[in-house]
Protein backbone atom coordinates (compact mmCIF):
# COMPACT_ATOMS: atom_id res chain seq x y z
CA UNK A 1 0.00 0.00 0.00
CA UNK A 2 2.78 2.39 0.98
CA UNK A 3 4.64 1.48 -2.20
CA UNK A 4 1.59 2.16 -4.38
CA UNK A 5 1.19 5.52 -2.67
CA UNK A 6 4.83 6.44 -3.33
CA UNK A 7 4.44 5.42 -6.99
CA UNK A 8 1.32 7.51 -7.32
CA UNK A 9 3.07 10.42 -5.63
CA UNK A 10 6.08 10.29 -7.94
CA UNK A 11 3.82 10.07 -11.00
CA UNK A 12 1.89 13.10 -9.72
CA UNK A 13 5.11 15.04 -9.15
CA UNK A 14 6.23 14.09 -12.66
CA UNK A 15 2.97 15.36 -14.14
CA UNK A 16 3.32 18.62 -12.21
CA UNK A 17 6.94 19.12 -13.32
CA UNK A 18 6.23 18.40 -17.00
CA UNK A 19 2.98 20.39 -16.96
CA UNK A 20 4.70 23.29 -15.22
CA UNK A 21 7.59 23.29 -17.71
CA UNK A 22 5.19 23.24 -20.65
CA UNK A 23 3.23 26.16 -19.14
CA UNK A 24 6.44 28.12 -18.50
CA UNK A 25 7.79 27.32 -21.94
CA UNK A 26 4.59 28.43 -23.67
CA UNK A 27 4.52 31.63 -21.63
CA UNK A 28 8.09 32.33 -22.75
CA UNK A 29 7.34 31.49 -26.38
CA UNK A 30 5.40 34.68 -27.17
CA UNK A 31 6.88 35.99 -30.38
CA UNK A 32 7.42 39.58 -31.54
CA UNK A 33 6.11 40.61 -34.98
CA UNK A 34 8.13 39.11 -37.85
CA UNK A 35 10.77 41.30 -39.52
CA UNK A 36 11.16 40.45 -43.22
CA UNK A 37 14.38 41.16 -45.12
CA UNK A 38 13.73 43.56 -48.00
CA UNK A 39 14.71 42.40 -51.50
CA UNK A 40 16.68 45.26 -53.07
CA UNK A 41 17.75 43.65 -56.36
CA UNK A 42 20.23 40.97 -57.37
CA UNK A 43 23.89 40.49 -56.54
CA UNK A 44 26.85 38.58 -57.97
CA UNK A 45 27.90 35.91 -55.46
CA UNK A 46 30.24 32.89 -55.44
CA UNK A 47 27.08 30.91 -56.30
CA UNK A 48 26.14 33.11 -59.27
CA UNK A 49 23.65 35.95 -59.54
CA UNK A 50 21.13 35.74 -56.68
CA UNK A 51 18.33 37.87 -55.27
CA UNK A 52 19.76 40.29 -52.68
CA UNK A 53 17.86 41.13 -49.49
CA UNK A 54 18.77 43.46 -46.62
CA UNK A 55 17.84 43.63 -42.95
CA UNK A 56 18.65 46.22 -40.28
CA UNK A 57 18.99 45.42 -36.58
CA UNK A 58 20.18 47.44 -33.61
CA UNK A 59 21.48 46.38 -30.21
CA UNK A 60 20.72 48.57 -27.18
CA UNK A 61 22.15 48.17 -23.66
CA UNK A 62 18.71 48.95 -22.15
CA UNK A 63 15.33 50.35 -23.09
CA UNK A 64 14.43 54.02 -22.56
CA UNK A 65 11.74 56.56 -23.39
CA UNK A 66 13.15 56.77 -26.92
CA UNK A 67 13.86 53.04 -27.44
CA UNK A 68 11.11 50.63 -26.28
CA UNK A 69 11.99 47.08 -25.18
CA UNK A 70 11.04 44.07 -27.39
CA UNK A 71 7.30 43.92 -28.03
CA UNK A 72 6.63 40.46 -26.60
CA UNK A 73 3.38 39.70 -24.82
CA UNK A 74 4.98 39.02 -21.44
CA UNK A 75 4.50 41.72 -18.82
CA UNK A 76 6.76 39.99 -16.27
CA UNK A 77 9.69 39.97 -18.71
CA UNK A 78 8.91 43.56 -19.68
CA UNK A 79 9.05 44.73 -16.05
CA UNK A 80 12.22 42.72 -15.38
CA UNK A 81 13.76 44.29 -18.46
CA UNK A 82 12.93 47.79 -17.21
CA UNK A 83 14.20 47.25 -13.68
CA UNK A 84 17.29 45.19 -14.54
CA UNK A 85 18.34 47.08 -17.68
CA UNK A 86 18.32 44.13 -20.07
CA UNK A 87 20.13 44.57 -23.41
CA UNK A 88 18.24 43.59 -26.55
CA UNK A 89 18.16 43.33 -30.32
CA UNK A 90 15.51 45.46 -32.05
CA UNK A 91 13.13 45.98 -33.92
CA UNK A 92 12.37 42.23 -33.83
CA UNK A 93 14.01 38.90 -33.03
CA UNK A 94 11.68 37.03 -35.37
CA UNK A 95 13.48 37.21 -38.74
CA UNK A 96 12.22 36.14 -42.16
CA UNK A 97 14.73 35.70 -45.01
CA UNK A 98 14.27 34.73 -48.65
CA UNK A 99 15.53 31.26 -49.71
CA UNK A 100 18.46 30.87 -52.14
CA UNK A 101 19.44 34.52 -51.79
CA UNK A 102 22.25 36.76 -50.66
CA UNK A 103 21.21 38.29 -47.33
CA UNK A 104 22.98 41.36 -45.92
CA UNK A 105 22.41 42.17 -42.25
CA UNK A 106 23.50 45.50 -40.79
CA UNK A 107 23.76 45.79 -37.00
CA UNK A 108 24.08 49.13 -35.22
CA UNK A 109 25.56 48.39 -31.83
CA UNK A 110 25.21 50.70 -28.78
CA UNK A 111 26.21 48.36 -25.92
CA UNK A 112 29.38 47.80 -23.90
CA UNK A 113 30.79 44.33 -23.17
CA UNK A 114 33.83 42.34 -22.10
CA UNK A 115 35.59 38.99 -22.51
CA UNK A 116 33.83 36.10 -24.23
CA UNK A 117 34.19 32.63 -22.59
CA UNK A 118 34.81 30.81 -25.88
CA UNK A 119 37.18 32.70 -28.23
CA UNK A 120 35.91 30.66 -31.24
CA UNK A 121 32.79 32.81 -31.07
CA UNK A 122 34.90 35.96 -31.55
CA UNK A 123 35.62 34.72 -35.12
CA UNK A 124 33.41 35.39 -38.12
CA UNK A 125 32.01 32.11 -39.51
CA UNK A 126 29.70 31.33 -42.41
CA UNK A 127 29.63 34.71 -44.20
CA UNK A 128 30.56 35.47 -47.81
CA UNK A 129 34.35 35.84 -47.85
CA UNK A 130 34.55 34.72 -44.19
CA UNK A 131 34.53 38.36 -43.08
CA UNK A 132 32.24 40.98 -41.61
CA UNK A 133 32.63 44.71 -42.14
CA UNK A 134 33.32 46.61 -38.90
CA UNK A 135 32.92 50.39 -39.16
CA UNK A 136 34.10 50.23 -42.77
CA UNK A 137 36.84 47.58 -42.38
CA UNK A 138 36.60 43.90 -43.36
CA UNK A 139 37.75 41.58 -40.56
CA UNK A 140 37.74 37.80 -39.93
CA UNK A 141 37.09 38.29 -36.22
CA UNK A 142 37.37 40.64 -33.27
CA UNK A 143 39.30 40.82 -30.00
CA UNK A 144 37.80 38.14 -27.66
CA UNK A 145 38.37 40.58 -24.77
CA UNK A 146 36.13 43.24 -26.26
CA UNK A 147 32.89 41.48 -27.26
CA UNK A 148 29.42 42.97 -26.66
CA UNK A 149 27.22 40.28 -28.23
CA UNK A 150 27.21 37.81 -31.10
CA UNK A 151 24.69 37.18 -33.83
CA UNK A 152 24.72 33.41 -34.29
CA UNK A 153 22.34 31.49 -36.60
CA UNK A 154 22.16 27.72 -36.25
CA UNK A 155 19.70 24.92 -36.59
CA UNK A 156 17.78 22.52 -34.44
CA UNK A 157 19.88 19.44 -33.57
CA UNK A 158 17.40 17.02 -35.18
CA UNK A 159 17.06 19.12 -38.31
CA UNK A 160 17.31 17.57 -41.80
CA UNK A 161 17.04 20.90 -43.63
CA UNK A 162 19.86 22.77 -45.45
CA UNK A 163 22.88 23.51 -43.24
CA UNK A 164 23.08 27.09 -42.05
CA UNK A 165 25.57 28.37 -39.50
CA UNK A 166 26.58 32.02 -39.25
CA UNK A 167 28.50 33.58 -36.38
CA UNK A 168 29.29 37.29 -36.27
CA UNK A 169 30.78 38.75 -33.09
CA UNK A 170 29.86 42.33 -32.30
CA UNK A 171 32.46 44.55 -30.57
CA UNK A 172 31.81 46.55 -27.40
CA UNK A 173 31.73 50.32 -27.21
CA UNK A 174 34.23 51.81 -24.78
CA UNK A 175 32.98 52.58 -21.27
CA UNK A 176 33.95 56.24 -21.81
CA UNK A 177 32.36 56.61 -25.25
CA UNK A 178 30.50 59.96 -25.50
CA UNK A 179 26.75 59.42 -25.12
CA UNK A 180 23.59 61.21 -26.24
CA UNK A 181 20.78 62.53 -23.99
CA UNK A 182 19.27 59.01 -23.69
CA UNK A 183 22.66 57.61 -22.57
CA UNK A 184 23.53 55.72 -25.78
CA UNK A 185 26.91 56.08 -27.54
CA UNK A 186 26.84 58.90 -30.10
CA UNK A 187 29.06 56.94 -32.46
CA UNK A 188 27.87 53.29 -32.31
CA UNK A 189 29.65 50.43 -34.09
CA UNK A 190 28.14 49.45 -37.43
CA UNK A 191 28.67 45.84 -38.49
CA UNK A 192 27.62 44.56 -41.89
CA UNK A 193 27.86 41.00 -43.25
CA UNK A 194 26.35 38.84 -45.96
CA UNK A 195 25.59 35.14 -46.27
CA UNK A 196 23.78 32.90 -48.72
CA UNK A 197 20.60 31.07 -47.78
CA UNK A 198 19.66 27.65 -49.18
CA UNK A 199 16.22 26.15 -49.58
CA UNK A 200 13.48 26.97 -47.10
CA UNK A 201 14.00 26.01 -43.46
CA UNK A 202 13.40 26.99 -39.84
CA UNK A 203 16.42 28.08 -37.81
CA UNK A 204 17.15 29.87 -34.58
CA UNK A 205 19.60 32.61 -33.73
CA UNK A 206 20.96 33.77 -30.42
CA UNK A 207 23.66 35.79 -28.79
CA UNK A 208 26.58 33.66 -27.59
CA UNK A 209 28.11 36.32 -25.35
CA UNK A 210 26.52 35.79 -21.96
CA UNK A 211 25.08 39.25 -21.43
CA UNK A 212 22.24 38.31 -19.09
CA UNK A 213 21.57 38.05 -15.38
CA UNK A 214 21.82 35.12 -12.95
CA UNK A 215 24.05 32.04 -13.27
CA UNK A 216 27.13 32.83 -15.44
CA UNK A 217 25.03 35.61 -17.01
CA UNK A 218 22.88 33.15 -18.93
CA UNK A 219 19.56 34.23 -17.36
CA UNK A 220 17.25 37.18 -18.02
CA UNK A 221 17.60 38.45 -21.60
CA UNK A 222 19.67 35.37 -22.57
CA UNK A 223 16.81 32.99 -21.73
CA UNK A 224 13.81 35.14 -22.63
CA UNK A 225 12.90 34.86 -26.33
CA UNK A 226 12.81 38.30 -27.95
CA UNK A 227 15.85 39.92 -26.34
CA UNK A 228 18.98 37.94 -27.25
CA UNK A 229 17.48 35.11 -29.29
CA UNK A 230 14.81 34.46 -31.86
CA UNK A 231 13.83 32.61 -35.00
CA UNK A 232 15.12 32.71 -38.56
CA UNK A 233 12.57 31.53 -41.11
CA UNK A 234 14.00 30.98 -44.59
CA UNK A 235 11.00 31.06 -46.92
CU1 LIG B 1 24.04 39.37 -25.89
Kindly report the oligomeric state of this protein.
single chain
| Main structural class | alpha+beta
Name the shape in a single word: globular
Query: What is the succession of H and E elements?
Result: HEEEHEEEEEEEEEE
Spell out which ligands are present. Answer: copper (II) ion
Beta strand %: 25-35%
Major sheet description: 7 strands, mixed
The unreliable regions are none
Count of structural domains: 1
Radius of gyration: 20 Å
Write a brief caption for the model.
The protein is α+β, with helices and mostly antiparallel strands and 235 residues long. 15% of the residues lie in helices and 33% in strands. The strands form two sheets. Strands 2, 3, 4, 6, 7, 8 and 11 form a seven-stranded mixed β-sheet that branches. Strands 1-5-13-12-9-10 form a six-stranded mixed β-sheet, with no helix packed on it.
Could you explain how this protein is built, in words?
The protein is of the alpha+beta class. The chain contains two helices and 13 strands, in the order αβββαββββββββββ. The chain has one domain (32-234). It is 15% helix and 33% strand. β7 (132-134) and β8 (137-139) form a beta hairpin. The longest helix is centred in the N-terminal third of the chain and has 26 residues, at 2-27. The chain is globular and about 75 Å long. It starts with a helix and ends with a strand. Bound molecules: copper (II) ion. Copper (II) ion is lined by residues 87, 149, 207, 209, 211, 228. Residues 87, 149, 207, 209, 211, 228 line the site of copper (II) ion.
